[in-house]
Amino acid sequence: MAHEVFISYSQPDRDCAFEMVARLEAQGISCWIAPRDIAPSADWAAEIMDAISSARTMILIFSAHSNRSPQVRREVERAVHKELSILPFRIEGVLPSKSLEFFLSTQHWMDAFPPPREPHYARLSAYLLKTQAAAEPPHPPSTAATGGPGNHQFEAPELQHIERQLAGYIGPLAKHLVKAAVAQAAGVEDLVGRLARELDSESERREFTQRCQAIRPRTG
Fold this sequence. Notes:
Number of helices: 11
Helix content: 40-55%
């Protein structure tokens, strides 16, 4: 299920995060927040990646805690990679660390201090409703409508090989990324190209592509 907003926060700011969600959802703005929206026994990382990919906007509850959180940094990196709009909702007068400054330096910030936060939640809701009404749909039309992948059947050995190569760069997330990309890819070359874009540097993308090409003679 697609959600309008993905809420990124550090655990010490949990009360603020869930308070925000209550205010936004009361205005009809669909939110995704962990752990509420993670199914029991689900793959946590996969669920978060799915939620970020399907959201229109990430709201980052920015504080000294989130500024130091590796999990928050990973979520912001993924959101930037997926070209989501990110809105830092700053609840403390702190500046972003170097690891976050690179990703947030061009983003619009919303200061939400000092308390009380109610007026800031109202301002946030109004902003989101306005942008929601003005924005284009967050995702392209279905692949069938745009001449997409059709019914290409991938061989299990080639998918396993591609997944192993990708895992060498990004770890366990590779399994989920391959599964998601298969649903959109028109063939092996297209699949490898989509996955290569998940890597940070041109050298890694080129190396990954070359390693994946090794399987093609065997799979026809």
